[in-house]
Amino acid sequence: MSNKQPLPGGTVPNEVGSATRLSRPSPSKAPDARIQQLIHQINKHGYAIIPNAFSPSIVAEAKAEVARLTADPEMVGPAGEKGRNTFEGYKTQRLYALANKSRVFDAFALHEDVLALNDEFLDPGYLINSFQSINILPGETTNGATVIVPDSHLWDSHRVPSAEETIPVIMPAGSMLFFLSTLWHGGGANTSDGSRLALTAQYCQPWIRPMENQILAVDWEKLDEIPESHTSIFSDELCAEISTDV
User: Fold this and answer.
1) Nearest Cα to 183, choosing from 123, 239, 125?
2) 89-111 pLDDT, tens digit each
3) Do strands 127-136 and 196-204 pair parallel, antiparallel, or not at all (unpaired)?
4) CA pair distance 90, 53, nearest whole angstrom
5) pLDDT digit string (tens) for 67-88?
6) Residue 209 has what DSSP assignment?
7) Bridge partners for 127 per DSSP
8) β-pairing, 167-168 with 92-95?
9) Most exposed residue of 84, 139, 149, 239, measured as fewest CB within 10 angstroms of its CB?
10) Cβ-count burial 138-152 (b if 16+ within 10 Å, e if not)
11) Would you say 201 and 84 are in contact if contact means Cβ atoms under 8 Å apart?
């Protein structure tokens, strides 16, 4: 059997086709009972909360690293001081391309529960769509907790939620919110005196162009620092997203 694919200008070996380049082996074992319960929750309501996913020490280290990077003019990026438009938020600070800025953040994008859920909801070879910190300046309802509309991932494209249908996701620092991008969601208003910091890792299907081009965003000399399991979802969205309040 030939391993060639006919093309208008000739042939190309199958092993260099997109199916080979972007593939990643499917998980070899079924998810355990706890992950299956999370999958059921997400299928039914569009989201799931994983409380206390990260220890206080990891949370404190991440907060300190965000503060350090925000104070560094060479690392802060285009939206680190304040957002540039209404979507980013004029009173919101965002650090993009966290994979290029510090290895402290790797644990958040590579949490085993997140990867197990991604294996369920995304094709093999899924990618990082965006990995950033979002700091809503002066979740708890008063300080900009993420708001969602449960079950809205099942709606058609014409239905728009009312304010009464939204709920704030209030969870302890170090907890994770995993939700499908088809779920209506957003950042709540921060009416407190303090800021609300979250890290968000967004993942997409291998055939969709990511928001952040990690091939350009991550410096070549830093590639050896990144875990191999991480680089495979950077190079090559249905989207899934996680937010971690820190």
Assistant:
1) 239
2) 777 788 899 988 999 999 999 89
3) antiparallel
4) 30
5) 999 988 888 888 877 778 877 7
6) -
7) 204
8) unpaired
9) 84
10) ebeeebbbbbbbbeb
11) no
Instruction: Identify the CA nearest to 222 among candidates 210, 207, 211, 234.
Output: 234
Distance, in Å, from the CA atom of 25 to the CA atom of 172, rounded to the nearest integer, reads 34
Distances (CA, A) of 4 to 132, 213, 238: 41, 30, 31
CA distance 106 to 103: 5
Q: Are 234 and 128 in contact (CB under 8 A)?
A: yes
7 dihedral zone (left: phi>0; alpha: psi -120 to 50; beta) = beta
Separation of alpha carbons 53 and 111, rounded Å: 8
pTM summary value? 0.79
Q: Yes or no: say if 144 and 136 are a contact pair by the CB < 8 Å rule.
A: yes
> Which residues, listed in sequence order, are joined to residue 146 by a DSSP beta bridge?
187
How many whole angstroms separate alpha carbon 165 and alpha carbon 155? Answer: 13
